[in-house]
Every structure is written in structure tokens, then in C-alpha cells.
Amino acid sequence: MSPTFLTGGSGGTGVNRRWFHLCSLSVLLCITSCGTLSKGTPDNPSPYLGDKGLTTDPTAAKLLFEADQSIVTGYDLFKVFVSWERNNRAALAAIPEIRQAADNIRRHAEEWTDAATRLREAYAASPTPDNRTALNDALRVIRQALAEATAHLTKYGPANNNPGP
Amino acid sequence: MAPQIIIQALNAGLALVEALIPEVERLRLRGEISIEEQKRVLSRYQSLKTRADGQFKGPEWQIE
Q: B interface mutation test: which of A36, A38, A83, A114 has the most B CBs within 10 A?
């Protein structure tokens, strides 16, 4: 199998850039999830926390930030995965579970995103324990699909030396 | 213990705390999510919510 097996028609540079973005997004998600939200200054306040933000409750503000981050990062990574699968479909034909996983994401990613968005808005409007649980459940669905997509990319993607099937 | 020794010990303790404050502040700030990052995430979330950039519309999203 050629070293460019999983690079698609656009050449290695584009895929390497996408792979770099994927890794960067994952690292960013890990780093920022561990931090606390800066409150900023009166001239440059936090859009999440404080009188000019979504809430004055630090716990609720942090969950809202994490929800937004999971939703947008989820979209980015889903897009990387379905693009990669489409660009390498012929080469990936011997691994049908990748096409199945990609089609599952194509079929449901928008619905998962919309569900998480709706529940995020509900929690922002009313940060009750029930709304918090519902939002976390919706985010868990996105994260589970991301874990599957990431596993395929890690195993068969351009950043490894696996020669493929 | 002589009062002078106690005062010297307290002074030494205070000097140590004073020396550590910048480091503690630096570590605290390092764990903070900046305002710029918060704004970036919120802006991207709002774009996705309204599909402002044509999200989910490209050929890669079509089931063939």
C-alpha cells in the first residue's frame, strides 16, 4: 500500500494539516476543560461568567463553555472524519465499519448537534439539575461518536504507519 | 523561645510567602481560560447554531 494511502486526492499537505488540526483540537479540548473561566475586566468581560455574561454562577458558566466547546469541536472532528472517509473511500473499501461509522455520523450528527444546542439553551435559561443532566446526556452522545471516529482515524488515518488493508 | 527569634521566624515566613505570590498568580492564570478563547468558542457556537457558515451542507455530508 502506498504511503499516500489515506491522503485522498488533495495530496498529503492538506491531510497533514487536517490531521494537525484534529490533534490540536483534541489537545485544546483537554487543556481548556481543565481550566477555570477568566472573569476578564470591566472593559473586556467574560461572555459566560459575570454580570455581562450568561450567568453569575461559575459552575453553570463552566458547563455552558464546555458544552459550546464540545458542540463546535464535535462538528469540526465529525467533518474531518466524514471528509477523510469520502476522500479515501476506495482505499477504505476493505474496512466497511469505517463507511458505516461515517454514514452514521452523516445521518445523525446534525440531529445530535441540534439536540445538544437546544438543551444548552435550556440550561442557559434555567440552570436546574434536570437541565444539567439532560445537557450532559446530549454531550455524552456526541463524545461517544467522536470516540469512535477518533479511533478509526488513529488506527487508519494519515498520522500512523499502518499500511492498511 | 526568645521573642526576637519568633519575630525573625515570622519575618522569614512572610518573605517566603511574598516571594511565592507571583508564582502562585502565574500558575492561577495559566489554568484560566482567557476571554479571547471564551469569545472564540461562543462565536463558533453561535455560527453553528445558525448554520451561518453552511455547516452540514458540503458533499462530505451526503450519503451516497
A: A38
